[in-house]
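Question (not urgent): is this output format expected?
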Amino acid sequence: MNRKNYIRIALMGLLFTGCVDLSYNEVSTRDEEWTYNSPINGVKNLVFDVYGQMFNEFKYNYNGAIKASATDEADFAVSLSDIHKYYNGGWTPAYPFANTWEVSYRAIAEVHLYLEKIDQINLDDYKYDSSYPNMLLQFELFPYELRFLRAYYYFELARAYGDVPLVTTILTNAEANNVTRTPVQDVFRFIVEECDAIAEYLPYSYKDEPNQEIGRATRAAVLALKARTLLYAASPLFNTDNNKERWKEAAAASKDLLDRAGEWGIRLSPYADLWGHDAFYNSEFIMGLGRTADNAFERANYPVGVENGNSGNCPTQSLVDAYEYADNGETFKQRYPGQVNITREDPYEGLDPRFALTVVKNGDQWPTNSVQQITIQSYAGGFNGSPKYGATPTGYYLKKYVDGNCVTTYNNATTRRHTWIVMRLAEFYLNYAEAMYNYYGDADAKGEFGMSANEAINVLRNRPDIMMPEFSGSAGFEERYMRERMVELAFEDHRFWDIRRWKKGKDFFTTIDIADLQLVGDEVILNHSTKTRQWDEKYNLYPIPQSEIQKNKKLGQNPGWE
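Got this back:
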């Protein structure tokens, strides 16, 4: 069959199975004639551009600050960063500074530029090219990949803004400036239905596909997006009528992914392998976003005192307090609620192994490269502590995602590849546990899915490199679960959103605990201290950018941001 006709028929199939061709953002940065008359350079690059706009905090950050520093996970060392506006009153509709709206709708517009103009693609000129068979295979997958990406961007919009325009056609400027917002549960339902419609058309992996490209949408990524969406749809911020059946749906979707993961080669990996030069190939990743080798993240987060180190996103004592001891499951804060002499008594000994892989503490040898490795002195007056400008405000430095093998000296600097985790398997054990507990009210209930909330969490805690005491019973489960999720997914852009969807901002974000480290004689003393932050319930949702409301007053504004 002529490939042009095949693509046209494929599009008709999409339209008749419930696909909607949406585009809200009226801005297009492409020359349409060039795009469709040059499929290899035009269409293929358009598809990859839509991938390239996916959110990752190596690319979208606040002068080096990631959103963890707007949570109780971290505090950013440089006071001038916009990240502080999330909690210091500088966040307004006129200055929303998060670009989720703009990026998402621009990407969605590009998706629809492809889907609605697909009949213009003609590959006949390439039929005698040796790459023609592979080209056909790639172009067969593109519509389904783009539909996944469209669903992904709508998820990002919905969790940030709640109700958002869900548009079904390419619009003129005038039409775009008259759309109204769709209820968030309808947006979530659209995402779920899209995932159901496209999953079977995408491969398990791209190992057997042309060019063996990785980082593209797979069947597992589609199921993961569906499961994550249903978890948010069931959460208190969005599930305003407390419909418990939504939790059951979320549990079923996560369990479906967990049951299939093994046959698709997706398995839990050692925690230490989640970042680093070769992390892009990690078997636990359902989707990761790689970027070319550099040392920007290391320069941003190496401690002050390390050449070109800027301290960056510094883990809090609040995060450290969440780690448990392997001998009895007691937390750091439970064992050491007050002052502790960390020279005489090592309070970090025996902590959950994930602590040492995530946090750089006083006395550590860091970074690991032989050129810059030093013994960290993060106490006041120490080589890496205050009053040095930009020194850690929390007593700790970041290790997770930071590749200690990178050399950041002016001479002989080195670079490493970095991979942002979009989705990995451990998240969905946690998602499943949360959904099961909220549906059954019993952390040991297996229900119809055959695995309890505690059993799901224990899969993670029983990993050979972790081996923490198992969860059992329902007493205090919610608190223990929230700690486990904070520890496991630290600095992966979950905490910022989790606290919002749980509506727990006042509980966790109004103060953060920090370690006040003082040198007394030749001994370092740790005192627990706190920093106060502002929280308002309106922060659960982003403000609609004022620039958008000025163009279209029908959008309205989110509660509290008027």
